[in-house]
Design brief:
There is one protein chain. The protein is of the alpha/beta class and about 250 residues long. It has a single domain, classed as Aldolase class I (TIM Barrel, Alpha-Beta Barrel), CATH 3.20.20. Helix content is about 45%, strand content about 15%. The chain is built from twelve helices and eight strands. The chain has an eight-stranded parallel β-barrel with strand order 1-2-3-4-5-6-7-8, surrounded by seven helices. Strand 1, helix 1 and strand 2 form a beta-alpha-beta unit. Helix 1 runs parallel beside helix 2 and helix 11 runs parallel beside helix 12. The longest helix has 18 residues. The radius of gyration is 17 Å and the shape is globular. The two termini are about 15 Å apart. The structure holds 2-phosphoglycolic acid.
Length: about 250
C-alpha cells in the first residue's frame, strides 16, 4: 500500500526565527508519528537552520525549486548537490506559482525533474488547471499534457522517485478547495495515465497528493478518496497546530 505523504510548502514565508520555531514545534507535535511521511519545504535561505531543527526527527526536508545544471555560471540558481548538502530529500517542481508567475514551461520543468532524480532528490511534481481551463471542460486535457511533458524521457525505475501533486490553480490560497469528488476524478485519471505511460505496478506504487486550500477541516474527506495519497499544504502548513492536526488525522 502507498504510505500517505503530507508535505508543507512554506512558499516565500517565515524568517530565520519563525522558520526554526515552526520546525521545532512540528518536531514536538509529530515525533511519534511513523505511519505518514512528513516533509516541510522552507525557503532556500532557511534550509540549513530548519535542517538542524529537524535533525533526529521523522520530518524530512524539501526545497521549493532546483536548477537542472550541477554548477557554474547560473546566477541566482541552486543545484541538486547544494540541496543535498543542506540535507534535503525532496524538491517541489512545477508549482503553479512558478509556472504562472515566474513563467516556467513544461520543458524546463521536465529538465528539472530529470536532474533532481539523477541528483538523488525526490521530486514533488505539481500539475493543475486554471479556473478558465476547468470552466472550459479542459481539466483532464491540461493535466494529462503537463504530466506527459513533465515526465517525458523517464523510465519505469526512475519515475518512481516522483510524487505527483494535483493542485487546481483556482483552489490554491483561495479557500476554495476542490470537492473530494473533483480531486478523486483527476487523481484516478492521473493513475490511469501513469499505467499507460509506465505500467500497472508503477501506477499503483506512485503517490498522488492533492493541494489547494487543504486544511484540518477537509483533510479526512480528501484523504479517504482511494487515489488521494497525501496533501501538499500551503497556508495551513505555516501553523504548527493546523499542520500537525492534519498529519495526525491522516495517521
Ligand atoms: P494552499 O497552497 O494550501 O495555501 O492553497 C497549496 C500549494 O500551493 O501548494
Amino acid at each position: 500500500m502507498r504510505k500517505p505523504f503530507i508535505a508543507g510548502n512554506w512558499k516565500m514565508n517565515t524568517n530565520s526565527a519563525t522558520a526554526v520555531a515552526l520546525a521545532s514545534g512540528l518536531v514536538k507535535e509529530l515525533d511519534s508519528v511513523d505511519t505518514v511521511d512528513v516533509s516541510v519545504c522552507p525557503p532556500f535561505v532557511y534550509l540549513q537552520s530548519v535542517a538542524a531543527a529537524l535533525s533526529a526527527s521523522n520530518i524530512a526536508l524539501g526545497a521549493q525549486d532546483v536548477f537542472y545544471e550541477s554548477n557554474g555560471a547560473f546566477t541566482g540558481e541552486i543545484s541538486c548537490e547544494m540541496l543535498k548538502d543542506c540535507s534535503c530529500s525532496y524538491v517541489i517542481l512545477g508549482h503553479s506559482e512558478r509556472r504562472h508567475i515566474i513563467g516556467e514551461t513544461d520543458e524546463l520543468i521536465n529538465k528539472k525533474v530529470k536532474a533532481a532524480i539523477s541528483g538523488g532528490l525526490l521530486p514533488i511534481f505539481c500539475v493543475g488547471e486554471l479556473l478558465e481551463e476547468r470552466d472550459a471542460g479542459k481539466t483532464m486535457e491540461v493535466v494529462e499534457s503537463q504530466i506527459r511533458k513533465g515526465l517525458d524521457g523517464l523510465c519505469k525505475e526512475r519515475v518512481q522517485a516522483v510524487t505527483i501533486a494535483y493542485e487546481p490553480v483556482w483552489a490554491i490560497g483561495t479557500g476554495r478547495t476542490a470537492t473530494p469528488q473533483q480531486a478523486q476524478e483527476v487523481h484516478a485519471m492521473i493513475r490511469g495515465l501513469l499505467e499507460t505511460l509506465f505500467d500497472k505496478n508503477v501506477a499503483q506504487a506512485m503517490r498522488i497528493q492533492y493541494g489547494g486550500s487543504a486544511k484540518p477541516s477537509n483533510t479526512a474527506e480528501l484523504m479517504v478518496q482511494p487515489d488521494v495519497d497525501g496533501l501538499l499544504v500551503g497556508g495551513a502548513s505555516l501553523k504548527v497546530a493546523d499542520f500537525s492536526q492534519m498529519v495526525k488525522t491522516v495517521a
